[in-house]
Specification:
Layout lengths: L8 E6 L13 H17 L4 E4 L9 H14 L6 E3 L14 H5 L4 E4 L7 E5 L13 H9 L9 E5 L20 H11 L3 E4 L5 E7 L4 E7 L14 E8 L2 E8 L10 E8 L2 E2 L12 E8 L12 H13 L4 E4 L9 H15 L5 E3 L10 H8 L6 E3 L3 E6 L11 H14 L4 E6 L18 H10 L4 E4 L6 E5 L2 E5 L15 E8 L3 E8 L5 E8 L5
Helix pairs in contact: 7-8
Length: 536
Amino acid sequence: MVKDSSQKEEVIIFSDSHISKFTGFFNKKAFKTGVKLIQGLLKENPNAYLLHLGDITDSGTYEDFVYSKKLLDDNFSNIDNLYTVPGNHDLRNIGDKLWKDFFGERQFFIDTTENGGNMIILGMDSSEPDENIGRIGDRGLEAINELHSYSDDLVKVLCFHHHLLPIPNTGRERSMILDAGDVMQVIWRAGIDVIITAHRHYPNVFSLSNGIRRCLLVNCGTFSSFKTRGKAGHTFVELTLADEELNINVYGIESYSKFQQPVKESVSMLKGELKPQVGYLVPGDRVLSKICQFSDTHFSPGSQFLAEVYDLGIKMMLRENPNLLIHCGDLTNDAYPEDFAVAKIKLRELRGYDIPYLIVPGSRDLQPFGRELWVQQVGPLDPIYEDSSLRVLGINTGPDPSGHVGRSRLRMIKHEFATYGSYKFFFVVMHHSALPIPRARFKRAVTDAGDVIDFVTGHKVPLVLSGLDHFATAMQIEDTVFVNAGTFSSKKIRSKRMNTFNVISIYESGVIQAEEVEIHSSTRHLLGLYSVPIDS
């Protein structure tokens, strides 16, 4: 059938209904009210697709499945297009063995071009039996990657239960998909335009960019669980596509919900693809500042520190003529006195080059003796650098492997940005990342990552540098660019590019160019070209 770009396509997404007669977490009143609101939308467009993204039941028991199936059948008997994937609650208590009997397959694929539409939608199972965390897995990554074979003239939508990035206002980050960093790499290759997730009971919309193309990341909140977050209440999401315009609407169900007036996100399409939010270098655009970012030197007298690689890497960074060197933590291997003795020698050499540097501590630097030795031999735990054009705030994310920013340091960022952000390029440096890193289990990002991301993007902090897990990556969320460094001179390699450093060029126009440089070969790789607003 010939596609009609003016035809309105509609997808309604709800999740986390937590239906049960026994556990006490199912809010039946919210469920009934939400059903009425959805039925109102379906009355206007009976051909809309209805998706439930998991945690249909609260405890995954047989009784929960029977009750939830009856409720969905009774309230949506007029809908042929209801698609479901399981959530972590559905697979509790051997619920994974019951799912197929009640709801069929654990994944779905919708090709709306068969009816003249312009979308394809892939729903996936991200759940692990009896676990709150999720995983896409190798087969799932292959399934996502196969969407690359579909034309970019189509809007490609990916759905699963667990969240892909930390969600604001949801407390301690502890139950994302473990392979989130690997999933992020695949979605760009596959050309995904919209990712819709659930799980954390708070609706949220982020615009993402890898410096080449954009993607919308949508979390749809809880439909009818008593476990709500603040004044979000119960919510669901509507996605519409017509006339090259993609709209995301978040609907609040109760009168007190902050989403009672639908929160809308509208994005223009360009030949089926979200118009890219990337930077473009133009002739004459002057470099405001050039920064060499490195991390994880792992200074020690043992074999984990590659001294020759370090010395070569320093020479290569100096040839870049940077305005500033930034080290993103794990300066030492184990924070023993002998490790800091090596660090003392290397930092003395670095000072001799007469190039300013800023170093933040990593988790390896602070235990067992590191806190005292760091202050004595390196400097402040929360260092600050300032010159005529830059103001850089270093954040100590602590000795815990997971890291933590905390409310007091968020207030410090807010104060610093309010003071300097209007006339200097202000940015933040820390060791732990707020984002998932490829080839690493997502268990080591800062525990308050959702609030950190929300804070820096909400305040339009243009740049956040980190150095976790020995893998270089970059991504833009809203107007904030996040850049992670690989390992500079540690033997612990996670990337085929081996030991590397990043070169970050900040242009007066607001363009940020991030490159990764291989120390062993001098090969450069573009991590991304981004555009951020800069006050003039």
